[in-house]
Amino acid sequence: MRPFIVVLCLCLGLVHSREPMRTKRAVDPDAFRNISELITSKGYPAEEHTVVTRDGYILSMSRIPFGIKNQGNSVMKPVVFLQHGFLGDGSQWVTNLANNSLGFILADANHDVWIGNTRGNILSRSHQHLSVDQDEFWAFSFDEMAKFDLPAMIHYILEKTGQQQLYYVGHSQGTTIAFIAFSTMPELAQKIKMFFALAPVTRLDHAKTPAVRLFVLPERLLRFIFGKREFLPQNWLVQRISSTVCGLGAVSTL
Questions:
Q1: Which stretches does DSSP call E strand in 46-111?
Q2: Cα-Cα-Cα-Cα dihedral of 77, 79, 84, 90, to 10°?
Q3: How many domains does the chain have?
Q4: pLDDT tens series, the chain, 254 aa
Q5: Which residues have a Cβ under 8 Å from the Cβ of 184 and sit 6 or more positions away?
């Protein structure tokens, strides 16, 4: 009942807004930029890298080798690896202004910043043998992300930088796969100088959100409701709709 009331209040707020719904505001150009464009638009250098996991997934990674405040500094910098959360991608670390995005802040603090993307997100939708249109492509969970994705990205970063260890910063799901990987692969954990867990997730025992109740439903029913492939896909259509709705004057007042 409570979610329905919240949605109803939001709708009433839109209807009675002093600014007409048809009034549009300029759409932020960042809404249509990829991660490299987000980085370079703020004046920072960007590199694109790809990593292939042992089970064939092709992952996209981004690098900010130095910041605006330390350009041309050839001294070996501490390496920081940023890993996004659930239903996210690496752009979440560089979406805000430079003084409010961790990726840029760390680059300006003289760190070599690497940004990862796990299998299946909008930036890592390729496989050596499978297509995103095949059910087999989506037959994974955070267990596979921990077992295959994280080691592949960490080993690649250390090989490229010539360093023995790196700092790991994970958010939400990024902490979950790290807890799994570092606890089951001690040799991988030894390559982590320090692990920073932002909004860490290890268990759902005390979650009170109504969405958790869905998990008690039979798996066959859940697959019928949500499908067996991508959940809440991020594509050009969703991007276009969200940018249009968020550009409405009434929405911007919320």
A1: 47-52, 57-64, 79-83
A2: 50
A3: 2
A4: 444 444 444 444 444 444 444 555 667 777 778 999 999 999 999 999 999 999 999 999 999 999 998 776 667 899 999 999 988 999 999 999 999 999 999 999 999 999 999 999 989 999 999 999 998 999 999 999 999 999 999 999 999 999 999 999 999 999 999 999 999 999 999 999 999 999 999 877 777 777 777 667 777 776 666 666 666 666 666 666 666 666 666 555 55
A5: 146, 147
154 and 59 part of one domain: yes
Domain containing 98 equals 33-202
Does 174 lie in the same domain as 139?
A: yes
Is residue 120 domain-shared with residue 218, that is, in the same domain?
Answer: no
Q: What pTM does this model have?
A: 0.80
Q: Which helix (H) or strand (E) holds 195?
A: strand 192-198
Amino acid, single-letter form, for residue 54: R
Is the same domain home to 104 and 42?
A: yes
Nearest to 193 by CA among 36, 80, 83, 89: 80
Same domain, 105 and 2: no
Asked if residue 41 and residue 148 are part of one domain, the reply reads yes
In DSSP terms, 24 is beta-bridged to 248
